[in-house]
Design a protein that fits this description.
With 185 residues, the protein is mainly α. The protein is built from ten helices and two strands, in the order ααααααβαβααα. It has helices at 5-16, 20-25, 29-40, 42-53, 61-72, 77-90, 98-104, 117-121, 124-129, 163-184; strands at residues 92-93, 113-114. The chain has a two-stranded antiparallel sheet. 18% of the residues are buried. Keywords: Plasmid.
């Protein structure tokens, strides 16, 4: 592992909201760092990692703001960081926009591609939605007999609107009283 690996993993934790354990568990962290180097070049990767290491301490509002402005809001780094997020979640590197390549130059490896079959299977999106990748990671024999593990949304109680007609009735009565007193003058 290179000296760039720890900052890369820290950046990935920050961008994906998954833990070091989860990201290392995919077995793809080194491959994703290599993908970033291949697609955008080590200079841009180093700039992204330098921006990350210069952030305020974790667990602070200033850090959240700095991630948004220094990394995601940066013309050079923002699209790259968003592509990295998509890479972790889907296992696919999505081609950077034409506006980005016009501004910062074309990159020969900047095409949409799946990094590896493992990348699809280990994509964070499956964990995020509580599912398994279709056709790749079965839940086990007899799993079809159980309800999905995805929690059903908790129904939000509808507000009791029965007092509203009473309020409107009172408003109508008050309006009628005011109208009658105005007409009497």
């Amino acid at each position: 592992m290179s000296s760039r690996f720890e900052p890369f993993l820290g950046l990935s934790v920050e961008l994906t909201a998954f833990s070091y354990f989860d990201l290392l568990g995919t077995g793809l962290a080194e491959r994703y760092l290599a993908t970033l180097d291949t697609v955008v070049g080590s200079e841009i990767t180093d700039a992204l990692l330098a921006a990350f290491t210069a952030l305020p301490p974790p667990e602070s509002e200033a850090r959240i703001h700095a991630v948004r402005t220094t990394i995601l809001g940066n013309e050079l780094l923002g699209d790259v960081a968003r592509a990295l997020i998509k890479l972790w979640y889907s296992g696919t590197w999505f081609e950077l926009s034409s506006a980005w390549t016009e501004r910062f130059g074309p990159r020969p490896a900047n095409t949409t591609f799946v990094v590896s079959p493992d990348a699809y299977i280990e994509g964070l999106l499956w964990k995020a939605i509580g599912a398994h990748p279709p056709g790749a990671k079965g839940q086990g024999f007899g799993s079809w007999a159980f309800p999905p593990k995805i929690p059903a949304p908790v129904p939000v109680p509808k507000p009791d609107l029965t007092p509203l007609p009473l309020v409107f009735k009172e408003l109508d009565q008050r309006h009628d009283e005011l109208s009658a007193s105005t007409d009497a003058r």
